[in-house]
Every structure is written in structure tokens, then in C-alpha cells.
Amino acid sequence: MSDEIFRTPYSAAGGTMKNSLLSDRDQNLPIEACIGELLDNSFEWNAQNVWIQYEALTNDGWGRARKLAILDDGLGMNPVKLVDHLTVGYHDAFGGEDSSKSVSKYGVGAKYAFFNTCRKSEVWSKTKDGEWHKAEFDFDDPYLDKTETEWRS
User: Fold this and answer.
1) Distance between CA 31 and CA 35 in Å, rounded?
2) pTM, to two decimals
3) What is the dihedral of CA 80, 9, 12, 113, to 10 degrees?
4) CA–CA separation, 79 vs 127, rounded Å?
5) What value, to the nearest 5°, has the Cα angle with vertex 97 and ends 71 and 108?
């Protein structure tokens, strides 16, 4: 194989990154599992309290959300960690080690929870005495419609 050929796990060889991500979206994960992943992240980062607001998009049982908000009083994320948090495969356990109390392991749970429940995800966070920062993922972002060749150039 040539050293010049490079693919990422989301390479689409002529297709778009969006198609690859939409396949992740169609896993039909139950809404309860998606919320559980997000709650696990809250508790993994020392939240003592978590508040959930959920409004269903449909009544067909597929678990898509018109609105899902999860707020917690955990340690929060700095701007770099906040962006990394939306990267598939990124996982940073509190204290640097995986906890036996957490289901987190591979860095995909929160991302797949977002993919499966909504088209646009916004994550807001701040550390103690810090400022609020936001990172977002939007399935309708035109960047995702580019082919691999286009987004690499």
C-alpha cells in the first residue's frame, strides 16, 4: 500500500464526512441510553446535582429530541477540553484514570448521544471562577458536505 494514501475512520473516499456521521446517527439508541451517557459524564466530573429538561420531537419512540438540556454543578471544562469533548474518540477521565464507577471508556458515548438525539448540539461549560464557553456540532454545517479532498485542502 502506498504511503501517500491516508484515511481517517470517517474517510468517505469521494463521499462526504456528513454521510459517515449520519450513519452514526442512525444507530437508534434509546433516549434513556443517550441521557445515561450524558449523566455519566456529569457524575464522572464530580457533579453533585444534575437537572434534565427534555422535549420529544415525535411520539414514535425513536427518542429524537426537540430540546434536551442537561445542567450540572460539576467541575466544568476549559475551552480546549470543551472542543475536544465533541471529538469522537476523545476521553479524559477525571484524575486521568478510568473509574470503575463510570461507563466511560472509549470517548464515543456523549458524541453518539448527541448524534442520535438531535441535529445540533451545543455544549456550554465553565470552570470555577471561569467564563462560559460554548462548543457546538451541527449536522447542517456546510463543512460536512465537503469531500475528504476538499476538507484536507
Assistant:
1) 6
2) 0.74
3) -60
4) 9
5) 55
Query: What element of type H or E holds 19?
Result: helix 17-25
Look up cell 448521544; give the residue: 113
pLDDT per position as a tens digit, 32-45: 888 888 898 898 88
3-state secondary structure of 136: strand
**pLDDT digit string (tens) for 65-101?**
888 899 999 999 999 988 888 888 887 766 555 555 6
Across the strands, what pairs with 65?
Answer: 56
**Number of C-beta neighbours around residue 37 at 10 A:** 19
Phi (first) and psi of residue 35, to 5 degrees: -65, -40
Identify the CA nearest to 147 among candidates 34, 41, 10. 10
Asked whether the beta carbons of 126 and 133 are under 8 A apart, the reply is yes
